[in-house]
C-alpha cells in the first residue's frame, strides 16, 4: 500500500508520518501479550486492530486492507499457521498483507515453518520494541527530485507477496543512491583502524 509523497523533512518526522499511516492487525489470544504489543505499537504512533484468534484474523483481513498482520503462531481453534494459509488462499491473485509470525519458540525450525506456511517474516516473543520498530520500518524511503518542488520523499511498505511498485520516474538504484547521499552519519569509534 503506497503512502502519499511527503515533502522533505527531518528523517524522524518522516518515519513517524510513515508509521502512522501503516494499517496493522494484531492477531494474539493472550491478554498480556495483546496489551504489550498494542502499547508498543501505540508508542510508534500506530493504532492497530485486534483479532483474538485465527478465525477473527481471517475475517478482519477479508473486511479490511492491512499492510501488516502480526500473527501469533499458537492460538486455540484456528492457529496462526492455519489462518495464514486461509488468508493466502482467499486473497490469491489480489494484494495481500505482509504476515509476520510471532512465537516464543526462537528456533530456526519454527521460523522456517512459518515461512513455508506463507508468512513473510518472523519475530520471537516476548516482542522486543526495537525489533518491532525495525520490522515496521521494513518499508522503503525513496527520494526523487521534482522541478520546482525540490526533493520529494515517497514511502512504500515492501509487502512480501504484494510488492508495491517503485516510483517509475527513476531507476530504483539511482533513487537509493540519491537517498544515501543525503544521510548524515556519526561514527563513534575510538580505534584508528576501525575508523578507517
Strand proportion, as a percent range, falls in 15-25%
| Neighbour order of strands in the largest sheet | 3-2-4-5-6
Detail the poorly predicted runs. 1-9, 152-176
Number of helices: 8
User: Overall pLDDT, averaged?
Assistant: 75
Helix-strand topology string: EHEHEHEHEHEHEEHH
N-to-C CA distance = 40 Å
The number of E-state strands comes to 8
Structural class: alpha/beta
Using the CA coordinates, give the radius of gyration.
Answer: 19 Å
Q: What portion of residues is helical?
A: 25-40%
Broad shape: globular
Quick one: biggest sheet? 5 strands, parallel
Question: Which terms would index this structure?
Answer:
three-stranded antiparallel sheet; 8 helices; single chain; 39% helix; 196 residues
Tell me briefly what this model is.
This protein is α/β, with parallel strands linked by helices. 39% of the residues lie in helices and 22% in strands. The protein has a five-stranded parallel sheet, with helices on both faces.
Describe the protein in words.
This protein is of the alpha/beta class. Helix content is 39%, strand content 22%. The protein has helices spanning 11-21, 31-43, 54-63, 80-90, 108-116, 129-136, 172-181, 192-195; strands spanning 2-7, 24-27, 49-51, 68-72, 98-103, 121-124, 139-146, 150-157. The strands form two sheets. It has a five-stranded parallel β-sheet with strand order 3-2-4-5-6, sandwiched between helices. β4 (68-72), α4 and β5 form a beta-alpha-beta unit. The chain is globular, with a radius of gyration of 19 Å.
Amino acid at each position: 500500500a503506497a503512502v502519499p509523497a511527503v515533502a522533505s523533512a527531518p528523517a524522524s518526522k518522516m518515519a513517524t508520518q510513515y508509521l502512522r499511516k501503516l494499517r496493522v492487525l494484531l492477531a494474539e489470544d493472550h491478554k498480556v501479550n495483546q496489551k504489550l504489543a498494542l502499547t508498543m505499537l501505540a508508542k510508534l504512533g500506530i493504532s492497530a486492530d485486534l483479532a483474538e484468534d485465527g478465525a477473527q484474523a481471517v475475517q478482519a483481513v477479508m473486511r479490511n486492507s492491512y499492510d501488516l498482520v502480526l500473527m501469533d503462531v499458537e492460538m486455540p481453534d484456528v492457529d496462526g499457521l492455519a489462518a495464514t494459509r486461509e488468508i493466502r488462499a482467499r486473497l490469491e491473485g489480489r494484494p495481500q498483507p505482509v504476515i509476520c509470525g510471532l512465537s516464543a519458540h526462537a528456533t530456526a525450525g519454527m521460523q522456517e515453518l512459518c515461512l513455508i506456511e506463507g508468512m513473510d517474516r518472523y519475530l520471537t516473543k516476548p516482542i522486543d520494541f526495537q525489533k518491532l520498530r525495525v520490522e515496521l520500518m521494513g518499508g522503503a524511503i525513496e527520494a526523487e527530485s521534482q522541478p520546482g518542488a525540490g526533493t520529494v520523499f515517497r514511502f512504500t511498505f515492501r509487502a512480501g507477496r504484494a510488492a508495491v511498485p517503485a516510483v517509475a520516474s527513476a531507476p530504483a538504484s539511482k533513487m537509493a543512491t540519491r537517498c544515501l547521499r543525503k544521510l548524515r552519519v556519526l561514527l563513534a569509534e575510538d580505534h584508528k583502524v576501525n575508523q578507517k
